[in-house]
Design a protein that fits this description.
There is one protein chain. The chain is of the alpha+beta class. The chain has one domain: Aminohydrolase, N-terminal nucleophile (Ntn) domain (Glutamine Phosphoribosylpyrophosphate, subunit 1, domain 1). Helices cover about 20% and strands about 35% of the residues.
Length: about 260
Amino acid sequence: MCELLAMSANTPTDLCFSFTGLTRRGGETGPHKDGWGVAFYEGKGVRCFHDPDPSASSRIAEVVQTHPIKSEVAICHIRQANVGGVCLANTHPFTRELWGRYWVCAHNGQLSNFSPVPGFYEPVGTTDSEALFCAILNHLRQQCDKTTPTKDLVDHLVDLATGYAREGVFNLLLSNGDWLFTYCSTKMASITRRAPFGPARLKDADVMVDFESETTPNDIVSVIVTEPLTSDETWDIYRPGEWRLWQRGEVVMAGCS
């Protein structure tokens, strides 16, 4: 299975610490050696990095680890291939434009009986994950428009995710830059860091950070992952079927299907 990482924050924040921990699992402490990618929202723009090589040895990943790109929403994925070959076109996260915004998606899992219906959005690569993303956007494009309230959009996303989860494993990160939708089919965890901040140590690398020296008292930063990244913090474990909508570091909607 692949591993997911996302961030939602109330102020532009870098992902260097969490990204460093995740990349070790891409061919060093974990088997997810079939490519990686990360997308950072900067206003309405998205800065993306992708590489079909293992993240643990990727020079591009090294640049991302050491260059503090500030973002309020970020999505990252390290891949263990099951559907589709190892190539750049098959690396997550995937990006499409809808209603004047870039939508970014990363998926962990596999659906045994998924058959995409042709629509406006079509996959470039050969993964079922990208085909699922296109199917989700095709549904939203047909059933909603840019004036549709967020609650109604989320209702559609929950219905779709629940249906897909019945067909297999469907862990999802999806964002339009304003909010971050997360759905847990089997495994997901989150942590929200706010004042008073303290130190944290990564599980997969000998790296420790004191968040108090890196933040202000008003900062709120939430990290969502497949598996907890630190060894000395308490992570909130999702239940199967649980979904959460994050905005500016906080859960603004949640439920369990």
